[in-house]
Amino acid sequence: MGVSLRLNRVVLGDALEILRTLPDDSFDVGVTSPPYNKGERDKGWLVDKVVYRGASDSKDEEEYQKEQIAVLNELYRVIKPGGAFFYNHKLRWKRGVLLHPYSWISKTLWTVRQEIIWNRKIAANIRGWRFWQVDERIYWLYKPKNGNLIGEELASRHALLTSVWEIPPEREVPHPAPFPLELPVRCIFSVMDEHKGIVIDPYAGSGTTLVAAKLLDMDFLGIEISPNYVHYAQERLAKCEEERGRALEEMARHRVEKTFKERKERGGWVGRHRKT
Ligand SMILES: C[S@@+](CC[C@H](N)C(=O)[O-])C[C@H]1O[C@@H](n2cnc3c(N)ncnc32)[C@H](O)[C@@H]1O
Q1: How remote is the CA of residue 267 from the centroid of ligand 1, in Å?
Q2: Which of these, 92, 37, 77, 82, lies nearest to 203 by C-alpha position?
Q3: Would you identify the CATH topology of the domain 9-265?
Q4: pLDDT per residue as tens digits for the range 64-99
Q5: For residue 229, which atom of ligand 1 is closest to its CA?
Q6: Which of 203, 231, 246 maximizes ligand 1 atoms within 8 Å of its Cβ, making it the mutation to test the pocket?
Q7: pLDDT for 156-214, tens place per residue?
Q8: Best probe residue, ligand 1, of 52, 66, 199, 236 (max atoms within 8 Å of C-beta)
Q9: Contact call for residues 5 and 22 (beta carbons, < 8 A)
Q10: Who has the most CB within 10 Å: 109, 146, 171, 257?
C-alpha cells in the first residue's frame, strides 16, 4: 500500500522504503543530514554521544554507500524537474583511507550544483591525527529541467552569501546530531525565495528542516525511523512559533548591499587582481 501524499507530518519508517511509495515529481526542495555511518562501536566515547535511539549507525561502508545512492536516486525521482536537494555530509576516514561524499554522490542521477563548506567553527575532538576538523559539506543537488543542467539564477540577495557557511552547531535541541535551524532556512529560502512549495527531509530527526519549512510557509513531509524523534519533531512543529525569531534573523542575512555589477562599477573589490 502506498503512502499517499498527505503532507505536513512526519512518517515513521525507513527512508528508502517510504520514499519508494511516494509519487514522482512531488517536491520542490529537500534538505537532509543522513546518518554518517560513524561506526559507533569502534570509535570510543565521543561517538557514544551521537548514538541514535532506534537506529544503528554502523554498517559495512560499501553497503552504506549503496543505500545512500538508492536513497538519493529515489529523492531525484520524487523532486520536481528544476527542483533542488541539499545533502549534508562530511569527510570521514576509515583506517587512514579518506571517504569523500562525492565518491557516491557522483554515482547518482543528480547534477551537483555546488559543494558548500559548512564551517561549524567547533567540533568534538580528542585526537590529533589531523587538523581539527570543524567543517562539513552541503551538496546542492539539482534535477535538470528540459535538459538544462544549469538552472535558474539565484536572486542576488541569496547569491551574495558565500559558499562558506559559518553557522555554529545546534545546542538547544535534545537530539544527538541536529543541524541548526539557520541551515535549512538558508537552503530553502535561497532556492524558493518568495515562492511557496513542498519540502522533504527523509532523515528528519528532531524535525529541524520541517520547522524551517513551516516557518517559511511551505508544506512539508518528514520521514524518521525512531518513534522518539518522530514524537519530538511533532511536538516541536506544534510550537514552532517559538523559533521564528531565529528564522527571521537568518532571512535578514540575505540582503543586497551592492550587487556584483555595482561593486565593479564603483571600483569595489570583485576578486580580480588589478594594477594600482
Ligand atoms: C543526522 S540525524 C538528522 C538530524 C536532523 N537533521 C535534525 O536536525 O534533527 C539522522 C537521523 O536519521 C534517522 N535514521 C537513521 N536511519 C534511518 C532510516 N533508515 N530511515 C529514516 N531515518 C533514519 C536517525 O534516527 C536520525 O534521527
Answers
A1: 48
A2: 37
A3: Rossmann fold (3.40.50)
A4: 999 999 999 999 999 999 999 999 999 999 999 999
A5: 27
A6: 203
A7: 999 999 999 999 999 888 888 899 999 999 999 999 999 999 999 999 999 999 999 99
A8: 52
A9: yes
A10: 109
